[in-house]
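Figure 2 data, in text form.
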Amino acid sequence: MIRLYRIIYYTLMVLTLLGGLINGISAYYIVFFFQLFLVLFSLALNIWTIASFSYTQKVENRRTVKGDELILKLGIFNDKPFPFNMMKVHVKSVSEKQQIDLSFNLMPNDKIEFDLPIDVSYRGVHFIGMTMLEFTDIFGLCPMKMDMRRLPYYKQIELMVYPRLNLLPNIKSNSGDTKEFDGFNLDAAPSGDSFADLKEYQKGDAAKRIHWKQSFAKQKLFVKQFDLPRETRSLFFIDDKKTFEGEDQHLYADVVCECTAALLYHASAQHHPCDIYDSSRDEHMTIYGRSGFNPVYDYLALLPFDAQRDIAQTLSAATQSNKDGIYAIYVLTSRITDALVDVLNEAAGLDVRSTVIVCQGDASLDSENEKKLYNANVIRVNYGDDIEKLLGEGLA
């Protein structure tokens, strides 16, 4: 409606000017110059508003955790003796679904302040604050837009959001049972120096571990379990490849990092050495004990999820270089691919128990490959699920 009004107004301006030029009647010129004066006056008010307004925007803490309450304090000020035109401010939030638009005008020596709740819906580094400003004069003749992000002096607020930390229950280790020995909890592992226990044979267990005497006695195949050596490691593989588009990619990254944080925090409490790999780097991080968790927590918040390499390649290289020291493998991905199945089944031949945590995945696309996995546990987690419950039950 407003746009139609402007079209009609400028059309009348052209017609009055043509009428004056053709007929020479002064009334046409008077109307035309009055219309031109209104346009120039409206334009001048917009320019005055753009050049004169000042602002403040801040948050109490630029580091927060997903789901925490965050308030953006935004203030617009007019300390001049003339009023401002109507302003509309667009504010960028963490979530693309949260649209914040503020409309107002300011009288001379006036101000307006807002406390805007920001939806901290997923982890990562986000830039929040004002983006586009729209200025509309009282006649609606000369609307103007300005992108604040193009101004050399303007910077949005850089917000670092950590994944939510879920405290897992006292779950058992990945390879089976634990036993108490001299005050220490020793995990039962598929290889080691000290025999611990027996468990029923499962597909993928190495034949050399079969306890033939007990198997004949009980008419079932049983394999040996050993006390877990403390120097063995758990390997975590994060598939940070760009898999989805738009907000779906943010949701996937958030679920992966939240699951990883929960598992690593639990492992660090057990003083278990853990190596963390991703698809975008050749090197890896190592955590041992709770004191090493904070750098990994920063890493999970900053991981960009824009890798090009397949996680199966990283997994293959890491397992080849750690053949004698792997206790458990955790893979966090969106798909169980053929290449991933091959690498994990090869690891199963090394007596390594694997867990695949499928995040934001489609079970119908993975059903066939999931059946091909030997000695591997599959847990499916989607955004909004109870991660503490799913991981706790899946790893119990």
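Caption note: The mean pLDDT is 86.
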